[in-house]
């Protein structure tokens, strides 16, 4: 077979695959029924495709997932959160959107859990949702994903919360599928490895594969940063040359300007949002294995069963988080001495519950930092 005929054959397969996926997008749209208002704007072809990708192009599962998001958006109203409502959460710069993008044009959210300044999970998650909506608002027209840059400076055991981690995963995976391109965990402390092993089963395989550990003293991981970012723009805290630091007053002004833009973004006149087309950017998605699908479905189903329980857990959050910290500390066999009281509480902690289900999640075969670099975004 000539190279020309081989190329034509490849183009033919790609075209057939594209048509097949458009057909599935149409099936989901038909299953949703007549939509109006913001729901109609939200369900563009590209948006529906993100849910199909998250469920390996299975129409029924994607439809079920999308219906839950539409219900959540109608009740939670994420696009109506405004700066003044969550400004206290932002005061320390624990999450903020940078004024520069990565080399692919993706919005960047910087996260600094070491400067956490509030106790209630409800407020923390609401601020995260605000930041997600803001990052999406500022995406270029040819980009649909964002980058998370997580800085562990000042991070300690007191900053660990499996409860908040689970709620974060639920929101990200359940209502913002395929919005995360890559998450960089920068200079995570040694003790975080124990928590990561406990928490990782919460993540679906697709999300898990987007998490990359980077350490400034490991050249092989520093290359991840150089490949992703313009080092002249990247903040010095992440090895870049930008000496600028977070300023709450400047950031508040930026966010208030974006708050004015948000209603326009979700107005019926914004045909660009409603007509956002599906673009096939990764042909390999059609060849994903069934083993990943099985583990992903199992994790998703278990999260659905515990959604109500999670929402009602906030009143006992402080006690639960102390138990979580004890459980993580108990895993630090070489660095922390564990008291008998903590060992007695460990089986009662939420960490123990999650660890018991780890066989249904992702099996870790290496410690953080030993991966193979950047997995292409789905």
TrEMBL record:
Short name of one Pfam family: CRAL_TRIO
Organism superkingdom: Eukaryota
Record-level Gene Ontology MF annotations: phosphatidylinositol transfer activity
CRAL-TRIO domain ranges (all copies): 83-246
Coiled-coil boundaries: none
InterPro entries (UniProt xref): CRAL-TRIO_dom, CRAL-TRIO_dom_sf, CRAL/TRIO_N_dom, CRAL/TRIO_N_dom_sf, PI_Transfer_CRAL-TRIO
PROSITE patterns: CRAL_TRIO (PS50191)
Ranges where the record places region Disordered: 286-378
SMART domains with a match to the protein in the record: CRAL_TRIO_N, SEC14
Skewed-composition ranges (Basic and acidic residues): 294-351
Signal peptide: none
Protein name: CRAL-TRIO domain-containing protein
UniProt organism field: Oryza meridionalis
Lineage of source species: Eukaryota, Viridiplantae, Streptophyta, Embryophyta, Tracheophyta
